[in-house]
Design goal:
Elements (H helix, E strand, L loop, with lengths): L2 E9 L2 E6 L2 E9 L2 H10 L5 E5 H5 L5 H10 L4 E4 L5 H10 L3 E4 L1 H5 L1 H10 L4 E8 L2 E4 L4 E6 H10 L5 E5 L11 H10 L5 E3 L5 H7 L5 E4 L1 H4 L10
Parallel strand pairs: 1-4, 1-12, 4-5, 5-6, 6-7, 7-10, 10-11, 11-12
Antiparallel strand pairs: 1-2, 2-3, 7-8, 8-9
Helix pairs in contact: 1-3, 7-8
Length: about 230
């Protein structure tokens, strides 16, 4: 059974969900990101996915709130957003994050990624966010010409053990999963990626069974479209 990982995205100090990666289309679900994380943890979440959207886009900083979540929860936390250098990585690692997620830095600075993977092989995750198969960086604000299907195996070859693929165009739209790129990544990778972006229903989750092991879900959980905890 696919494990659902609830997402807590932070913008302006609140737990929000964007639509299609558009920062101007943010819907607030909890005024307190900590309360959002505690809500999912109380329902049995085994892992919480936390993203500082403001740091990712260079528009602000919610690091204090991220650390509060890590320190308070009794379940592991996977953290990303604006991790640009070794100091950023170590700050979150020292705070107790189970995985620290690199996105832009992994794409733009492979030497840093290689260094961190060598030193912390079980604590590094890489986010490959994409629109129409092409990688986006800087908090989904900048598109690149890099194809996800080409870059993902390169990351794996560097020793990355945890890859997170998000369909940025579908994220928060409740438009349903596009399985084609997910199947392509499963085909070219040795280990299936964690996936997210567009989940709209329990049927979407069921379609992932046997394909991947973990899916990050945001708006569909907050809107009650996906049953949680999942029992079948």
């Amino acid at each position: 059974m696919v494990r659902i990982i609830p997402a807590v995205d932070i913008q302006g100090g609140r737990a929000v969900r964007l639509t299609g990666g558009d920062y101007q289309r943010a819907q607030v679900y909890f005024d307190s990101p900590l309360e959002a994380a505690q809500h999912w943890a109380a329902l049995g979440a085994e892992l919480i996915h936390v993203v500082d959207l403001d740091r990712a886009s260079g528009r602000g900083d919610n690091r204090r709130l991220v650390k509060e979540i890590i320190a308070t929860l009794q379940v592991p936390v996977q953290v990303g957003g604006g991790v640009r250098n070794r100091a950023d990585f170590l700050e979150l690692l020292d705070a107790g994050a189970r995985w620290v997620v690199l996105g832009t830095a992994a794409v733009e600075n492979p030497a840093l990624l290689k260094e961190l993977v060598a030193d912390f092989p079980d604590r590094v995750a890489v986010a490959l966010d994409a629109r129409v198969g092409r990688v986006t960086i800087s908090g989904w604000c900048m598109n690149t010409a890099l194809a996800v299907r080409d870059l993902a195996p390169q990351m794996e070859a560097l020793g990355v053990r945890r890859l997170i693929y998000t369909d940025a165009a579908r994220d928060g739209t409740l438009g349903g999963l596009d399985l084609a790129p997910i199947r392509e990544l499963v085909r070219v990778l040795k280990q299936p990626p964690v996936v997210g972006g567009g989940v709209a229903s329990n049927e979407d989750i069921a379609r992932l069974d046997g394909l991947v092991r973990e899916v990050i879900v945001g708006k569909a959980l907050y809107e009650g479209r996906v049953s949680y905890p999942r029992t079948a």
